[in-house]
Amino acid sequence: MIEYKIHRQSSLKFVKVIWKKFFPNCDQWHITLEGPFMELRVPGVIRELELYLKRKKIKFDRFPYTDPIGITAKYQNSFERIFHGFSHLSMHVDRRGRKETDQVLERCLHLACNILGYNLQEEAKIVNKHSLGRSYMAGYIEAESRWFAKEEKKHAKKKTKVQKK
Fold this sequence. Notes:
- The chain has 165 residues and is α+β, with helices and mostly antiparallel strands.
- The chain has seven helices and four strands.
C-alpha cells in the first residue's frame, strides 16, 4: 500500500471528490481524517491524483504504508480490509442530521464486540471503557472539567457579591 499524507484540512466532502475521480472501483483504499491533514492509502501510485493535488496547490507526501500501531501491524491485511469497508461506507452514509451516522456507528461497534465473542452486557462495559478512555486521552473530559470549575467559581463570586449587598 502507498500512503498519501495530504496536507489540507480533513474533509469528507473532499475525499468524496477524489474518490469519485480517481479510485471509485478500488476495493482496497482507505482514508483517515486527522484534522489538519488526511491519510489516504491506496494499492499503488496514482499519478492523476498527484497531478490533481499539484494543480490545486495541495501539498502531499507519498510513501509506503505500514501501520505504526502494534496490533494493527500484526493483523495488517485484516485491518486494511476493515479500514476499506469503513471508508467505503463513509462515501454512502447520509450524514445530514447525524441520525444515520449514529445508527451506522452503533452497528459497527456492536458487530466488532459480537464477532469477538462478547455478550451485550460485556459490550456495554467495553464500549463505555473505550469511549471514556478515548475522550480522556484526547483531553476533552479534562478540559471540560477545568472549564466547569472556572464557571462554578465565577458563579460563586457573583453569588457572594449579591449576598453582600
